[in-house]
Design brief:
With 268 residues, the protein is an alpha/beta fold. Helix content is 41%, strand content 17%. The protein has one domain (3-266): Alpha-Beta Barrel (TIM Barrel), CATH 3.20.20. Helix 1 (8-14) packs antiparallel against helix 2, helix 3 packs parallel to helix 4 and helix 5 (102-110) runs parallel beside helix 6. It is globular and about 45 Å long.
Length: 268
């Protein structure tokens, strides 16, 4: 049986990475493959979104670097969000796209490691991965940590060096627990996961769509069929009125998990 058709129960049994074991457990308890992207500049909106969708997600994706100019007390914001994530049982993914010298990345990650479960990196060198791993090991909370390698973007005309990226990911499997992308795939779907952005429920006769900004949208059912594990949904939820965020997130959660169950059925 190919890896992406394994059930999450089976992956949980076979997996040896603490951060993924924790994620798989959340997925099974909440029946959710949904990651919501909180791409706001206003910290209060991030908190409102987390409160609205927290019961329906397995991961909340942040860009707190977007907040720094509008957040008078970033430390308190991080603590509040961290407590909320523990209460509502979801992971925090800081989509920082680390892409710099190893020492710079080490310093930057040390500033946030206490309040995030996952961070994103551009996988250009082993030194970057090793820097992330060093800081994660030093974190006194003993919470499991991991990083996700950005292997391709959900925009047209991006030209990633996918094969070399994937080799680096697999070499650094102690800290790297997955990839972000629409098309890149890994052979080991137990100890690595795939998060896919650019998700929008499309009409029944569409499987993909490109908007005026170059964003490539794909239907959740099609992405699950192609082997995505976690679906990252942003504007498809956050562009709705605030009082609809929770119900829209629930719809995406149910759509994605239903597609996963269908894929399991079809694999037997």
């Amino acid at each position: 049986m190919s890896g992406h058709k394994l059930s999450f129960e089976e992956r949980l049994k076979r997996c040896d990475k603490p951060i993924l074991k924790k994620l798989y457990h959340i997925i099974l308890v909440k029946k959710s493959l949904l990651c919501v992207a909180a791409d706001f500049t206003n910290p209060q909106k991030v908190i409102k979104l987390a409160e609205a969708v927290g019961d329906h997600i397995c991961i909340l994706k942040l860009h707190t670097d977007l907040l720094e100019s509008e957040c008078s007390n970033l430390g308190e914001f991080r603590k509040h969000l961290w407590r909320l994530s523990r209460d509502r049982n979801f992971l925090i993914f800081e989509d920082r796209n680390f892409y710099d010298g190893a020492k710079t990345i080490e310093l930057a990650y040390r500033n946030i490691v206490k309040f995030v479960d996952l961070v994103s990196v551009i996988p250009i060198s082993d030194d970057i991965m090793e820097a992330i791993e060093r800081v994660a090991k030093e974190d006194p909370s003993n919470e499991p940590k991991g990083c996700l390698a950005v292997c391709d973007l959900s925009y047209r005309n991006n030209v990633p060096n996918t094969s070399q990226y994937l080799e680096l990911v697999e070499r650094n499997g102690k800290i790297c627990c997955g990839i972000v992308g629409q098309f890149a795939t890994l052979s080991d779907r137990v100890n690595f996961i795939k998060l896919t952005p650019g998700v929008r429920a499309l009409d029944s006769n569409e499987i993909s769509h490109c908007d005026t900004t170059g964003q490539k949208w794909h239907d959740p059912r099609e992405l699950i069929k192609r082997g995505s594990d976690i679906l990252v949904v942003g504007r498809s939820i956050t562009s709705e009125p605030e009082d609809s965020w929770g119900s829209t997130a629930l719809s995406y959660k149910e759509l994605a998990f239903s597609a996963y169950l269908q894929q399991l059925e079809e694999s037997f």
